[in-house]
Write a structure and sequence with these properties.
With 224 residues, the chain is mainly beta. The chain has one domain. Helices cover 8% and strands 34% of the residues. A 7-stranded mixed sheet has the order 5-6-2-9-10-11-12. Strand 10 and strand 11 form a beta hairpin. The longest helix has 13 residues. The N and C termini lie close together (11 Å).
């Protein structure tokens, strides 16, 4: 079985509406810092430890740990140098395999969610050229709704101390150049702890089976 194992700590973003003018300024500011911090991270693939790197402006890694401040994100890449002409994102084949990681939710309260997800980067325009939306060619199932690029997304983890959801997002078939014109931003077949666990299955405190005041292990399996 193919497997990808990593540790994850405090990867947080906060959901909020941002005015378009402010968003453009944030994107321009973001581009000025691209390539500022590529730190190594240890992941285990099919039982073998391997070194990848975190491409990010503000997030860092140490050993198998990945730490990211509020409202930031990082991407796993194969090499220390990010090739903008042919982005070298880490793209394991997960069909028939699984992803496992450890996560610390202890500082993630209501209104803040900690995310770990896969997307089909790099973003592409309708003619197939790379779409450098943010310095890293970012895309997801909702980005096209606010001027970015659409692409398939699988949310392995969206949660905090009190909630957790896993949601796949499909898209229309891409054109011959690999460009997506629409994706299902809401997602389908979502799995949520509210539906899957008893009232004491997940929460902050020793009375819960998964005590989110302590680090815990997560695993998502991709059955064939």
């Amino acid at each position: 079985m193919r497997a990808f194992v990593a540790a994850l700590a405090a990867v947080a973003v906060q959901a909020e509406m941002i005015p378009e003018s402010t968003l453009k300024n944030l994107i321009l500011e973001h581009k000025q810092f691209v390539n500022a911090n590529y730190t190594p991270i240890s992941v285990t693939v099919d039982g073998k430890k391997t070194q990848k790197y975190i491409a990010s402006d503000w997030c860092t890694s140490d050993g198998a740990e990945f730490v990211c401040n509020m409202d930031n994100r990082g991407f796993i890449i194969d090499d220390a140098n990010f090739d903008k002409s042919n982005p070298n994102f880490f793209t394991p084949n997960l069909l028939g395999g699984s992803v496992e990681w450890d996560v610390d939710m202890s500082e993630h309260e209501c209104g803040c969610f900690n995310t770990f997800y896969t997307v089909s980067m790099p973003a592409k325009t309708a003619d197939g050229s790379l779409w450098n939306t943010d310095g890293y060619f970012y895309c997801d199932a909702n980005a096209g709704n606010w001027g970015g690029a659409f692409c398939p997304e699988f949310d392995l983890q969206e949660g905090n101390k009190y909630s957790w959801a896993t949601t796949p997002h499909s898209c229309n078939a891409p054109n011959s150049k690999g460009h997506y014109d629409w994706c299902d931003g809401s997602g389908q077949c979502a799995q949520n702890i509210v539906d899957q666990l008893a009232w004491d299955g997940y929460g902050a405190g020793a009375q819960y089976t998964i005590n989110t005041e302590q680090p815990f292990h997560a695993k998502v399996t991709f059955d064939q």
